[in-house]
Amino acid sequence: MRSYSLIAPAKINLYLEILGDRADGYHELAMILQSVELADQVNIRAIGTQTIQVHCDHPQVPLDKTNLAYRAVELMSQEFPDCWAQFGGVEISIQKNIPVAAGLAGGSTNAAAVLVGLDMLWQLGLTQPELQELAAKLGSDVPFCLAGGTAIATGRGEELDPLPSLDSFYVVLAKHQNLAVSTAWAYQSYRSQFSNTYGRSEGVDKSITTEMINPPTRVHSGSMVQAILNKNVAKIGQLLYNDLEQVVLPNYPQVLQLRQAFENCGALGTMMSGSGPTVFALCQSQEQAQALLQHVQSEIPDPNLGFWVTKFASHGIQIVS
Ligand code: ATP
Fold it and tell me: What are the residues whose beta carbons fall under 8 Å from the beta carbon of 102, sequence distance 6 or more?
């Protein structure tokens, strides 16, 4: 039986602005997403029986239909019933290195890897736009995870415009291992507290045309885009932004404490990723990243606080073998 092994990188949000409510119940977003080298390994294998089996070495990851990798196989079997009939079922084994429920798109990147793996296993020869369309059906972050690198993401997060890759940054990630923030809770809380301010942001750069209930006139991710185009490292660090911090930081004092600890120890910039609770800091070298990690670790001596040092990545899903 044929099998493939894929690398599925995590992402961080360099910028996350909530622009308004959409008619489909989601939020209209303006984000800048960045892949990092911290990645899961996803192995995919054809098995004789018409079943979907998911294995994972992390106890918090579900192995049933609620696993996004499982849903990716299900979607592909519905889209390509002849392949499902011809090649049989699939076994997915996930080696989990990305912290779970962390705002790092761990589930989404696993799902993206499954799409690429099945494309090869079933010899479909799908184009990148075809894979992106399937990815968008699985979740807003899945198309980005597929392509990776650095990109502007609009709409629900599934409409991508690639940016030139930034390979010079090191990243320190920190997360309280026993802390999880529900993405749905974060967005709903933001809506109930801040929907009256949608579209009133200052700054002027990019028009939004997508159908929205309460469209804003402009968004201001453009300064960050400009900094990225100029590869202005210091400016990128200063312009990190995440609207969801406004609801997560007041409700999760541990995340606030982490944010403050990173802010006070000389990083180029620091921000919560996605809906948290992971906080990241940008550094110019591995040495600076290690020094920063040690500094924050000594400031918050909590054995449950996990740290990872990684680097910006210019790729999404990669095939190892
Ligand atoms: P995002 O940034 O896309 O919102 P996240 O990084 O916050 O995602 P995940 O690691 O994807 O969060 O996990 C969110 C929840 O999804 C977990 O609580 C877990 O139960 C579930 N889940 C489903 N499939 C997976 C998967 N393959 N890997 C990790 N978690 C998964």
Answer: 175, 180, 273, 276, 277, 278
Sign of dihedral through CA atoms 136, 137, 141, 145?
A: negative
Q: How far is CA 208 from CA 10, 19, 143, 166, 212, in A?
A: 27, 9, 20, 25, 9
Q: Relative to the CA of 141, which ligand 1 atom is closest?
A: 3
pLDDT tens figures, 247-260: 999 999 999 999 99
Find the residues whose C-beta lies inside 6 A of ligand 1.
61-62, 66-69, 94, 100-108, 110, 141, 183, 274-275
pTM of the model: 0.91
Encoded tokens for 239: 């312009």
Distance CA 27, CA 18 (A): 7
| pLDDT tens-digit readout, 31-47 | 999 999 999 999 999 99
Mutate to test the pocket of ligand 1, among 6, 67, 156, 179 (most ligand atoms within 8 A of CB): 67
